[in-house]
Amino acid sequence: MALFALISYFVLFYRWPVTRDFPWANYLLFAIGGVLIASGIRRAFRRPDLYRGKIAGTVLGSISLLLLGLFVYVTGFATKALPASKGAPGVGAKAPDFSLTDEYGNTVTLSSLLTTAGVGDPAQGSTVGAGTPPNGVILIFYRGYW
Q1: What b/e readout covers 94-103, taking b as 16+ CB neighbours within 10 angstroms?
Q2: Fewer CB near the terminus (10 Å): N or C of the chain?
Q3: What is the pLDDT of residues 59-70, one digit of tens each?
Q4: Quick one: pLDDT band at residue 146, thresholds 50, 70, 90?
Q5: Please, how many CA atoms are within 13 Å of residue 58, restricted to the half-sphere of its CB?
Q6: What is the pTM of this model?
Q7: Beta bridge partners of 128
Q8: Cα end-to-end span (Å), the chain
């Protein structure tokens, strides 16, 4: 169960933000695995004549704890410790000019957004803010599948 809890995060649960950002489902699977291993070890030590799992149960329990520690380290610390980008603009710095396509399929550049008066779809005749150039542009980056 502990091995499944470790592998299932990277194969299945990383796809959705609700289980990727805080892997609660995997922690639940690790807890179920821990309860199963603890009950197996307890059974083996209470009736050693009937169950011969003292050594195997202890080894599996130790491996499960090691897998849990590895999982917590990778998902909690290693993925959050990204190196700083040396070429990225800082807070308040001007972004370099770039071009992207908008929702209508038109190519839009950052410089054209900073010099164009009016906001909205030109095909729809939108004239919100017409006559005054904008003070800035807000860039929103979404984390996800690109």
Answers
A1: eeeeeeeeee
A2: C
A3: 888 888 898 889
A4: very low
A5: 5
A6: 0.52
A7: 119
A8: 33
Name the H helices within 22-53: 24-46
Q: Find all residues with CB under 8 Å of 100, minimum gap 6, and list them.
A: 107, 108
Segment among 11-20, 52-61, 100-109 with least mean pLDDT:
52-61
List strand residue ranges (DSSP E) for the chain, in order: 99-101, 107-109
pLDDT of residue 128: 53
Helix, strand, coil tally for the chain in percent (to 5): 50, 5, 45
d(CA 92, CA 12): 38
At position 96, the amino acid (one-letter code) is P
3-state secondary structure of 80: coil
Select from 113, 88, 118, 91 the least CA-distant residue to 102.
Answer: 113
Which residues, in sequence order, are bridge partners of residue 101? 107
Burial class (CB in 10 A: 0-12, 13-18, 19+), 31: middle
DSSP 93: P
**Domain extents in the chain:** 2-78, 87-119+127-146
CB 27 within 8 A of CB 19: no
